[in-house]
Amino acid sequence: GTDWEHRDGWVRRLAAFARSRDEWFLRWSATAPHDPDLLTVRAQLAVDRAWPSPARAELLREVSPLITAAARGDDRDPVPWRVALDHARGSGAGHKYFEELWEAAVRRAPHHYGCHVAALRYLGTAYHGSHPACLDFAERAAQDAPAASLVQALPLHAVLAYLTDDCGPELPRRRLDEAADRAIALSARFPEADPGPAALRNQLMLVLVRLGRWRDAFAQARLIGPYATSYPWEQLSDDPLGLFLRTRDEVRAAWLTPPPGPPRSERGRHGHPGEH
Question: 1.20.58, 3.20.20, 1.25.40, 2.60.40: which CATH number matches 1-113?
């Protein structure tokens, strides 16, 4: 039904499942080797398998033909191009090649969230510390997207990267709050305790805590309900669930006694506090 956002999510989940239990995937490969769905999952799986390796860039270059096959499987589908954008980041591809991939992706789905996140991550990696440029890109994309599009959360991604990084120029507090407010408006469009926007709300709660906006953080904690997600907590701790639960407790306690400052990373990094 050309619901590319859901398709992207299921491609990621199926590839993750195939990494640990691949019997079904091998049967699928044997019975329908040219199925566009199979080709897309296979490309995602190959990227996922190469990613943790110290030889990531070299291994990813060998994956290129699989991504090309997936892109040819269904010319309407932007998901192989999201995989290609991730592949470009991991393999250290140049900016000109990235631009070609990006143009192909948005031509198929101008507001595809996964492609936008992949592009933002490429820019953040290729130009480490260029947080103003990344936020500029995210804000332009959000301004062009419909109000209900997940792309409205893209500035939040850029702000989260800034708040958990120690390099690059400072960003005005106004822009940080505007990104958070945009994400709050998007979160309000979904029901409470809905697994769909859980990843958005987890990121938003962390950003709001880092900004010292405890009332808004508490509201997101209630909306999250039981749906803690690995990201962004796994970026800051080897115990992501534990960090989520401790941060949620901090947010609740802030109603009684506001804490002196935002939580620190458990891996030595720290975010910029709310004085920006």
Answer: 1.25.40
